Amino acid sequence: MPFWxxxxxxxxxNSSQEPDVVSVSSKATSVSSMAPKKxxxxxxxxxEAPVNPIKPPVFDLTKEQETKYNDVLKYxxxxxxxxxxxxxxxxxxxxxxxxxxxxxxxxECFLRYLRATKWKxxxxxxxxxxxxxxxxxxxxxxxxxxxxxxxxxxxxxxxxENVTGKNLIVGYDNDNRPCLYLRNGYQNTSASLRQVQHLxxxxxxxxxxxxPGQDGLALLIDFKAAPEHLKLSSKFPSLSISxxxxxxxxxxxxxxxxxxxxxxxxxIGYTFFKLVGPFIDPYTRLKTIYDQPFExxxxxxxxxxxxxxxLDFEYIHDVYWKEMNRIGxxxxxxxxxxxxxxxxxxxxxxxxxxxxxxxxx
Length: 361
Prior knowledge:
The chain is of the alpha/beta class and 361 residues long.
């Protein structure tokens, strides 16, 4: 059962896909002080598809990379016949690998982990196996008869974290990556495990919003304070929470960040970045840094007026939360239906798994 139900290229990569970019802007991109724009589009819910046309993925592997990919694929074709631990606890019970987990083992998944390990086969296999157990342990994957219902990451578990709209999935960037906004100024809770569970929930959701041909996301982080009448915190996350989140992102969501854009960073923010810097993997730290506004990377039709776009977006929790989860559920059901229709094999392309049935016929 899916967890949400109620119950960069490295040196060896030869891909033509645009390299990962982290953009840090010290300049505010807000235009709220300007005169109101004409023709703004009022919106309260996420977009279901990007503005730009869908394109199939271009893998463009070298012979050596193709061989390494096949080695990983063959290993897991045998591995999925086994039972694996239901958690990372010592002497944990084991359970057969679920259809949900097999559907996660896509061609793109194997390639993401291979790129993250610089095309080293054994470390790739080790990391994927660790991620599979982590997903069970953390409540992302529900193992029947074993998962603690109180720890399964569901909309109900994390909803209180998002009543202010501090995390939003709205629109797609120019390369069809779904945009996940982290609005630091709308923080409404104290540091806790649930904050981490909430971010993992939103990561899993934004992955569901990825269109065929795209397996990366755009992370747009805005440090602007919320309006004073909301009386919300604009503190930076605690160092312990930040370290835990970085560990999860680097180890269990490798190569998912296609673009990172930061804006309205206060002076103290740079001190915070220096503190967490040592915990960020060297490849991420070496990403190119630009000083450009969001409108350079996101079509104006799907960008809020706050960033010089054409949307007049308003977060109404009861409206947004329900629709975001409905869209995510619908997209995931299509993904799993395609997985079944295509033979429930591991190593399928996410491009085929995400397509509409009539498109894929």
